[in-house]
Every structure is written in C-alpha cells, then in structure tokens.
Please model this.
Amino acid sequence: MERVLVILPHPDDEVFGLSGTLAQLIDQGAIVTYACLTLGEMGRNMGFPPFASRVTLPQIRRGELEESCAAIGIQDLRMLGFHDKTIEFEDKVFLDEHIHALIEEVKPDVIFTFYPGYSVHPDHDATGEAVVRTVGRLPEADRPPVYCMAFSRDHEQAIGKPDISFDVRDYLKNKLAALRAHRSQFQAADIIGSKQHTDKEIRERFGTERFWTYKFETWK
Amino acid sequence: MMQPIHPAEVQRRLESLKDQDVYIHLEMTTGAYAAHHDASKHPAATFITNAVIQYSHSLISGNGPYRVGLKMLQGWIYSEGLTHYEENEPERLILAGHDQQGKLVVSLQLSREPF
Ligand SMILES: [Zn+2]
Model:
C-alpha cells in the first residue's frame, strides 16, 4: 500500500478508528492523502469550559486537524470546503465529481472511508455512500479496495465481522497525540483516563483498528 | 473567547443592530449522536444561517440561562437557554447556550455581514 486515500467528512473522524493504521502505513513508506470534506463547523463541542463559538470553530478545527495530521504523519491534507451537516443534501453529481477527481489524481492502492448506512452520523453515511458510488462506477479492474469503518448499533448483525484488522499498538503515541490535537472536541483526560488506566488497558482499548472491505457486488 | 453572558452588554449590542438589515444564524441541536448514546433520546437539530432580518425591538431576559426575543415587523424571533457570548466581537452578537458538559445546544447570532 503505497498510495492511500482517506475520505471523511469531519476533522477528528480519523482519530479513533484509523489514525494508528495510517501512522503504521506511513512508517512503512505509504503516502497518505486525507480529504476532509468539512471543517466540522456545526459541531456541538466547543471545549470545556467552552472556548470556541460558532464563528471561531471552523478555524479552530482547521488548526486541530492540521496538528492531528502532523501527529499521524499524513503528508497531504486537503480540506474540501463542504459545509458540515449538509453532505447528504449536497448535489450528488457535484460531490461525486470531487471524489472522482481525487481518485484520478491520487490513484490510491486503497481508500479508507465510512461504511455507508452503519456509521451513525448522516455526514458519515453520505460520505461513504459517495465514495462507494464513485468507485462503483469505475471499471471493475480499476477499483481500489475500499476499507470502511462502521460503528452503529448492531452493525455486525447486518454486515458481519470486519475482515481487515491492524494491530496498531506500536503507534499509540501517534494516535493519542492525534486525539489530544482535537482539544475542542475531546477531553483527552476523560477518554484516556488521567491515571486510572494502565498502559495495558489503553493498549487493549485502542490497539486494534478494524475495517470492512466494501463488497461491490452488493452495491447497485 | 466565549464568556458567561453579561446581560447589559448583550442588550447594548442588540440595540446597536436594530432597525437595519442583519444576517441571522439561529440554531438548536441535540446532536447527531443523541440516539446512538441513548436509544431513548430523540435526535433533533435545526438551523438557519444568513437569513436577512430586521427587528425594531429587542430584549434579553431571565437570570441565566437567558432568553432573547426580537420583534420584527411581521413576527418574532425567540431563543431560550443562552449562557455565553463572545465578548471580543463588538460588531456582531454571538450568543450560545451550552449544557453542563459544555456542548452547544442553542445559538443566536446577528451580524451586518454574512456569517
Ligand atoms: Zn464525524
């Protein structure tokens, strides 16, 4: 996997499910392009106590995203300028054109995104859908594998067990630094635990990242 | 930096923006993850951004969280649950209501320029 394309709608979507995997692939020589569709400008978290406002949040989150990408080692970050919460309503031709152009340019060996329908936030589902729609339109031989994250309730009943998993225990430093970068969104101390969690617990909780390879024969 | 609401200061800014075309951002949200974290919750959100309005009368009321009412020529704008304002934005009015976890629940913003 030399060329990796990540397509997600919000700054911070990369943290929990993917950052360790990306850090590992980059360590092994991959070049990662991360296309983040929005700036998460409609997010509800503004720091605690709140330090951001609706007006300042987009710029704050842009900075947090850049810091997170630096922690992971991502070489190529693109912010596509879509508006948070609107991906499902966006003109599909317009959206797909953007994604198609990225695929043409990057020529990825693999694409990471959200599993359409099983990723809770409407922007997540709509982003995954757009990726799958666009890749599905390519001739079969040209389709890069699409590795999807899923976390909705009962998603395994519908889509089964993940078929890809990465042991990222050696890259937890990057992952925790990415988590801490998004300081308006996460109270890292609450998530990681101030001191209560042992290293072992953290490794178990954050040490594996799992994906579903999208099956295009089920797509129509 | 967002600060706890200072009602007199907010009232001053409301007055300074009345009787003219202003852009409004008005929003209320429970968050897209409400039902994911607790199935009994009903996720709801609504916003309107950069609509142009004009009001002739305005008031911030309550003891905190605060309410704001704006009287327009043909109707009203109402917002409840406001807790914070942006003090370093003298030209605009940035109001928000945050819950006990600091998450935004409601926001009301007025500006002479689009957001
Ligand atoms: Zn997200």
The helical segments of chain A are 15-27, 57-72, 92-106, 122-136, 155-159, 172-181, 188-192, 199-206. The two ends of chain A are 27 Å apart (CA to CA). Chain A has a mean pLDDT of 93.
